[in-house]
Amino acid sequence: MNFSYFRSDEKSIALARLYCWMIGFLYPAWSLIIYLFLPGEIDDARGRVSFGAAYLSLGALSLKNNQVLISAFPAIAKVGYVALLFHWFGLLKQSQMSEVYVMGTFIVAISLSMAFAKLSELIAFSVLLVVMATFVSLRVGGRPEHGVMLTFGLITCQAFTVTSLFMRSKIEKSLEIAEAMTKELQVEMQKRELEESRRQGEFRERLLRVIGHDLSSPLTVILQYNAKVTRNVQLGKIQYSSPDIQKAVEATFRAATQITEILARVKSYISGREEDRHVELVSLNDLV
């Protein structure tokens, strides 16, 4: 047994919309056919058409892109279903058998569509329905015309229910396919994210290697300047106030400043605070 018809999930909403459309078309059409075959048995054909129009309107409302309305649609269908049951019991109490057969058949059809997922269950319930309907008809003094309507109603009920079961199967399969495609797309997106993360990691690693290699050049220059200045001072070739010393200090300062800026930029980029930008490989020694 499967009673998920009145839940607010995607499958239940699709089924509720399907039943509203089918009832909206079939119920007034069947009533008009009985009216033509058995004049006088149903004298409210206009009401049947109005009833079908109401169900068609419910089906049309469910197509609007309104999330609140769509979520509440199964509950609205449930209220209509319960109201239909109360009306049917009232007709049965008044012994209006023509009305009871017409409305009761569609109540049973909707119930079967919601409740039974196997054909064997449907057949067993239909046999029980025939026995109970025959018993009720005899108890209230049924006429042969009622038997005609009962037979016609059961045939319609079977056709309606089998169609509903088939459509429910199609809807469930479509939802399963959509869910599988969604999962496959998610997996593909995760693979792309992992590949992009791997490429960024490799790029940063290469960048660090290149910078580490190129930093050796300006550091060597700084060490050479310091060694030269120290040696010349020791030999007495230059004084601390000499312009050569000032030039050496200025050159050393520029090289140290550039190295500091490079290291700060690399640190910011690796930590993710720096926006991605086009990077060209250069020789730091040339800059110094």
UniProtKB/TrEMBL annotation:
SUPFAM superfamilies: Homodimeric domain of signal transducing histidine kinase. Coiled coil: none annotated. One of its GO terms (molecular function) is phosphorelay sensor kinase activity. It comes from the Bacteria. Keywords: Membrane, Transmembrane, Transmembrane helix. InterPro entries: HisK_dim/P_sf. The chain crosses the membrane at residues 18-38, 68-88, 100-117, 123-141, 148-167. This is Uncharacterized protein. It comes from Planctomyces bekefii.
